[in-house]
């Protein structure tokens, strides 16, 4: 069989993993990236956003057989540690005692996957911005420094992120449905530096949250002892970004709401000024394909980051694409059509879950009744694992479809609402009748 040629547009996390999957299936892959080669730039450890990698991501990395490389740069996080406004801590285990999500630096992961893609045989073109797609002839045109060049392939994968040009061409030329919904919240990165000898100043193997109702800070560990932290807050109104302009306002806000955090960041205002405030949004588009061209990752279903699933969902796209290519062989048009129809509800489910988890993280993790509810669910799930997998576990520790997790999660919430209304549930939660009642409600 003649070697089939593929163009992957966007060498971010999803594009580079997709390239690896496809090369391992025997395709000849050209990977095009708008930016210059990350590997030629000096990257300071701890200066990049880090991401939570969970089961779906690992499943795809395992299928591509590169998981062992990724393990070396990943830090397990077994539980949430909540910091209240006085600096007191409470803890919430994510799943079973050996279950963890993993903190990885986005830049480190991208560097690793670019190196692996190249090692396995991808031809990578940097400084190549996709400016046009010819859907009828499976060709893409790139602006390379100051000249345009067109390349052809058997099929094209658009993995060019939230502001995808491949998608823009689908919308412009084919009238595909598209909208981008900005949410009313922004974020800013901050860094807790490492302690002496690269020690960790707070618990390393945990995801830290400072939940404050309508806003929050989170922190994930880096390999060098530092923590990358993110403040998520409203654009406008009380406790929002619009009121944090001067040094006095900013330091006052942090000391008031996050005193223990403030003590860990000596140059807080310097960082505040140096780091950008960025917006968050959700991409809805359909279909994700035309002829032999397909969208995956954020270009198809960018979401807000509150479930830590955007990259994981994109990695899942890569695995599923690899599987459906086996089914449809060289009928790429049919294959991509089916992929788009099957995966769109998963993109929607992912987005619903992500928005829902913002409320859980910023607000509910500070609520003792919510923490008790989760404890009861864990207990029930241990006794009847075939009847109940908690929502967080479905999303982060399984490959259950996002759409299924979302529907099952809503039903579980209805049941737990009744349980939490039982008189003196705080005292009686461990009694057998609670388990019996859940069994009856299922
Ligand atoms: C604050 C924050 C926290 C997050 N935390 C998590 C988390 O904990 N866990 C998780 O799973 N996800 C998380 N995410 C989501 C995750 O970052 C994204 O889902 C993931 O990066 C998507 O990968 P991608 O390759 O599809 O897109 P991108 O990472 O955006 O990569 C797209 C690539 O395409 C290139 N490109 C763009 N346009 C063109 C063009 N015209 N031509 C050629 N190349 C182009 C870009 O330069 C880039 O390299 C988070 C996101 C944010 C904003």
Summarize the structure.
The protein has 442 residues and is an alpha/beta fold. It has three domains: 5-74 and 104-180 and 280-357, FAD/NAD(P)-binding domain; 183-279; 367-441, no CATH class.
What do these coordinates show?
The chain is α/β, with parallel strands linked by helices. The protein has 16 helices and 19 strands. It has helices at residues 13-24, 55-63, 67-71, 106-120, 165-174, 247-257, 259-264, 268-274, 298-301, 310-328, 332-362, 368-383, 391-396, 402-420, 425-428, 432-441, and strands spanning 5-9, 28-32, 50-53, 75-77, 79-83, 89-93, 101-105, 123-125, 128-134, 139-144, 147-152, 155-158, 177-192, 206-211, 216-221, 227-234, 277-286, 289-290, 293-295. The radius of gyration is 23 Å and the shape is globular. 43% of the residues are buried. The mean pLDDT is 95. The site of flavin-adenine dinucleotide (FAD) has 32 residues, from helix 1, strand 3, strand 9 and helix 10.
The SS-based structural class is alpha/beta
Which topology of the largest domain does CATH recognise? FAD/NAD(P)-binding domain
The CATH class of the largest domain, by name, is Alpha Beta
Q: In total, how many domains does the architecture comprise?
A: 3
Low-confidence stretches: none
Strand content: 15-25%
Assembly status: single chain
Proportion in helices: 40-55%
Largest sheet: 7 strands, mixed
What is the arithmetic mean of pLDDT? Answer: 95
Shape: globular
Rg over CA atoms? 23 Å
Any guess at the CATH architecture of the largest domain?
3-Layer(bba) Sandwich
Small molecules (ligands, ions, cofactors) in the structure: flavin-adenine dinucleotide
For the record, give the distance between the C-alpha atoms at the N and C termini, rounded to a whole number. 53 Å
Number of helices: 16
CATH homologous superfamily label of the largest domain = FAD/NAD(P)-binding domain
Q: How are the strands of the biggest sheet laid out side by side? A: 6-5-14-15-16-13-17
Tell me the total number of β-strands.
Answer: 19
């Amino acid at each position: 069989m003649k070697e089939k040629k593929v163009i992957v547009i966007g060498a971010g996390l999803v594009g580079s993993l997709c390239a690896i999957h496809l090369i391992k299936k025997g395709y000849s892959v050209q990977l095009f990236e708008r930016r210059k080669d990350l590997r030629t730039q000096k990257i300071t450890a701890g200066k990049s956003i880090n991401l939570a990698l969970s089961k779906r991501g690992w499943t795809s990395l395992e299928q591509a057989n590169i998981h062992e490389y990724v393990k070396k740069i990943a830090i397990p996080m077994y539980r949430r540690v909540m910091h209240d406004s006085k600096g007191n801590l409470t803890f919430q285990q994510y799943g079973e005692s050996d279950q963890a999500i993993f903190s990885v630096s986005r830049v480190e992961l991208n560097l690793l996957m670019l190196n692996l893609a190249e090692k396995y045989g991808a031809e990578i073109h940097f400084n190549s911005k996709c400016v046009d797609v010819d859907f009828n002839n499976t060709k893409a045109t790139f602006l390379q420094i100051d000249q345009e060049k067109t390349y052809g392939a058997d099929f094209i994968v658009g993995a060019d992120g939230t502001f995808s040009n491949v998608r823009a061409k689908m919308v412009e030329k084919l009238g595909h449905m598209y909208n981008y919904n900005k949410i009313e919240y922004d974020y800013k990165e901050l860094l807790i530096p490492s302690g002496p000898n690269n020690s960790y100043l707070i618990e390393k193997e945990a995801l830290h949250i400072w939940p404050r109702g309508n806003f929050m800070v989170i922190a994930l560990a880096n390999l060098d002892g530092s923590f990358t932290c993110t403040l998520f807050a409203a654009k406008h109104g009380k406790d929002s970004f619009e009121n944090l302009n001067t040094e006095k306002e900013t330091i006052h806000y942090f000391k008031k709401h996050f005193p223990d955090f403030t003590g860990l960041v000596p140059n807080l205002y310097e960082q505040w000024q140096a780091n950008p405030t960025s917006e968050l949004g959700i991409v809805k588009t359909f279909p994700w394909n035309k002829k032999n061209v397909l969208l995956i990752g954020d270009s198809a279903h960018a979401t807000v980051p509150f479930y830590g699933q955007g990259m994981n969902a994109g990695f899942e796209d890569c695995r599923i694409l690899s599987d459906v290519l086996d089914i449809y062989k060289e009928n790429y048009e049919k294959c991509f059509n089916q992929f788009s129809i099957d995966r769109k509800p998963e993109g929607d489910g992912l987005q619903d879950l992500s928005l829902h988890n913002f409320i859980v993280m910023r607000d509910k993790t500070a609520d003792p009744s919510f923490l008790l509810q989760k404890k009861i669910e864990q207990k029930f799930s241990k006794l009847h694992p075939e009847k109940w997998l908690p929502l967080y576990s479905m999303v982060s520790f399984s490959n259950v479809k996002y759409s299924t997790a979302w529907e099952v999660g809503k039903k579980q919430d209805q049941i737990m609402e009744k349980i939490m209304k039982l008189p003196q549930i705080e005292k009686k939660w461990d009694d057998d009748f609670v388990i019996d009642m859940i069994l009856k409600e299922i």
